[in-house]
Amino acid sequence: MDRREAESNPPASEPSMNGLIRSLHHVTATVTDAQQDLDHYAGVLGLRLVKKTVNFDNHNVYHFYYGNERGAPSTIMTTFPYKGWGVPVGTRGAGQITVTSFSVPADSLDFWRERLESMSVPWFDAPSPFGEDAIELDDPSGLRLALVGSATDDRVPWTTAEVEEAMAIRGVHSVTLSIRSPDASVRFLTDVLGLDVLDQRGDRTRVRLGRGGPGHTLEIQEAADAPPAINGLGTVHHVAMAIGTPEEQLEVRESLLHLGCRVTDVRDRQYFKSVYFREPGGVLYEIATLGPGFDVDEELADLGSGLKLPPWEEPHRSEILTKLPSIRLG
Question: Rounded to whole angstroms, how far apart are CA atoms 200 and 206?
């Protein structure tokens, strides 16, 4: 599961990538039960399952992608359901993304409070220090999620019979990184990746990707006394930021290498290309291209309906199907 080539990076101080990082791309978490995961993200939260594939590092484990109709970058949550493979429960702590926030219309939070209550999903009010109304909840694996009310999010949502457009999740709002000593992590985002500090309130610093706002925000939270994070069930594995083209991705990779960062080779994830590296506080970052997108191997109307394998795994399809758990959609 680990991108072992991506070790902790030293802080650097020369700007080199201004304007290349456009937004968030996706968040990837290690979770427990595949069916419970589907029921929560596609059922309770009303996201679309846009791709059902396998973990490219372990083809016996599903990789689910949830998002809007097309799975547009910044709307995507992805999960690896590792139940039955001996992966221990992780530890939420410093050096990790500890809250994944989704954007919903500002006047929809009462709907979400009632919906979660009716479905026996515990929640609590957790207003943002930056002035937004929000609620927090845990998914079935223990991942901490938030629904943040926003009046400025123009992304088109996926809708269901139970979650109409006026209430639906627009995409990822932001992620919160818990960091023991945040200064180096903030400097890395600003001086190296070319992002901007938008605001600071109490123990949190809000950083803007691209234009800022929902889908374009990272929050660094000082967590001086938090235990060291340990990846495992119920933890976020990494956060990906979006870049326009493979050529820009290579430019960023070369700049990071020049600054002494440990960066993986470019990985073909079929629906985008990726590189991975760690920021000074220990959080695993990915930079992912915008394309080719999730409709490269399925028609738009059929996204998520079939098990899609990369070409190098197709010869193993029969064996893979015997190892994957049975799931049902809808």
Answer: 6
Exposed (0-12), middle (13-18) or buried (19+): which is 266, by Cβ within 10 Å? middle
Give the 3-state secondary structure of residue 319. Answer: helix
| Contact present, 190 and 196 (Cβ < 8 Å) | yes
3-state secondary structure 34-67: HHHHHHHHHHHCCCEEEEEEEECCEEEEEEEEEE
- C-alpha dist (Å) from residue 74 to 11, 67, 169, 240, 288: 26, 9, 12, 9, 11
The full DSSP string for 63-122 is: EEEEESTT--TTSEEEEEE-TTTTPPBPB--BSEEEEEEEEEEGGGHHHHHHHHHHTT--
pLDDT in tens, 111-164: 999 999 999 999 999 999 999 999 999 999 999 999 999 999 999 999 999 999
Q: 10 Å Cβ neighbour count for 127? A: 12
Residue 200 pairs in a beta bridge with: 205
pLDDT digits (tens, 9 = 90+) for 187-235: 999 999 999 999 999 999 999 999 999 999 999 999 999 999 999 999 9
Name all domains of the chain by residue range, CATH numbers in brackets: 21-295 (3.10.180.10)
